[in-house]
Amino acid sequence: MLPRSRHPLSRRAFVGRAAGALGTTLGTAVVADFGTPRRRAIAAAADRLRHGAPADAADDEQFWREVRAAFTVAPSIVNLDNGNVSPSPRVVTESLVRHLEMEQDAPVLVRDMLGPGTANLARELAALLGCAPEEVAVTRNATEALHTVLLGYDLRPGDEVLTTTHDYWAMQNALDQRAARDGIVVKRVAVPVPAASMEQLRETIEGGMTPRTRLVLVSQPVNLTGQFFPVKQICEMAHARGADVVVDGAQGFAHVDFKIADLGCDYYAASLHKWLMAPIGTGLLYGRRDKLAKVWPLLPTAPAAPKDVAWKFMDIGTRSMAPFVAIGDAMHFHETLGAARKEARLRFLTRTWADRLAKVPKVRFSTSFASPEMSCGLASFSLDGVDDDALQRFLRDRLGILVQSIRYDRASFRGVRVTPNVYTSPADLDAFCDAVERVAAKGLPPSGRS
Known about the structure:
Layout: H1 11-25, H2 37-48, H3 61-68, E1 78-79, H4 90-105, H5 107-114, H6 118-129, E2 136-139, H7 142-152, E3 160-164, H8 169-182, E4 185-189, H9 198-208, E5 213-219, H10 231-240, E6 244-248, H11 260-263, E7 267-271, E8 283-287, H12 322-337, H13 339-357, E9 363-365, E10 379-383, H14 388-399, E11 401-402, E12 404-408, E13 413-418, H15 426-442
Helix pairs in contact: 1-5, 2-3, 4-5, 4-12, 6-12, 7-8, 13-15
């Protein structure tokens, strides 16, 4: 005989419990429980800064110590690889675990009750983006969202899709498959590294356009280097030539402060488990309402389903709703920090380590620091005479410092990507810079020594 649940609940009590959770996390406004001392401390610290300029808070270490304490980050690890997957603050992890346990109490009931709540979640994500709720779909990551557009957008043989050599490999693979299957033409332009100006980047994209260009894919920012593009100008140029624009925002959403109108794009995709710090396996897809009918869902919906709403992309079968519910807590944490304040902190952290390593003769940057709008919290470098993979392994295995070594042959790119986050301290960056300076001066130590 199977053991009885350790938490026996009547159906009425169970429904009440689930409804209460929904009211907290997916209500008409995103409301996380800030009743604990730690959560109150962050809210109070943010309130203290509310009248100041965001840049003034960038180096306010008293505030950022409160933020750091909201994470369960191991003190023995210096995590500078948040552009891969970021840890979530404790409040998000607790929400995820709580709703996973609820699902195990009665999976079908919880799915039926939490599932409709994703409409509320779409409304909250739409508010962050500055668009209509019908234009937002909740996905599992940016790759799923972008593949939906790249593989579902109406194209005919001979139509061209323009992208760059620096766009993410999964999107390149999708376009190559589309070319092989449907006879479209994929054009790729080489991105200057580092770019001299936003105008140079705009001209690079313009130089790849032809009368047959139907769709333009651009990253904001590029995952390799953190390079931002003048997306608004690119969209205006593309629209004037009859092309639509899809933006890969996997590294941009909740990284910098913007609204979708600031970009002017037709489609936008993001992973929420990076800079929003939501649970792993969460993302979003935005589509302009008048452009949604151009995109076929990867998984078909009912024939009578509306064609001009992004929700048509969310019918993907059975899945756990717990990660999606916890997105609400991540959004509230993000909003408590303040999007502009967070952007200022990320730029401050990057410039802190980059300015220091810029004094090392052997360091070469792939990221442009020509003007503030060209980069933020993601930057890449290489060290003359030192293998990038070996440097990554040394930092990780000997010192507990996590960075990302990247080799991307399509773009002839190699480098080490560094991505701090809001819980990163100046001491973390000092430890990283100390190590790189030591390697630059003496080389990598022999195996078995640090």
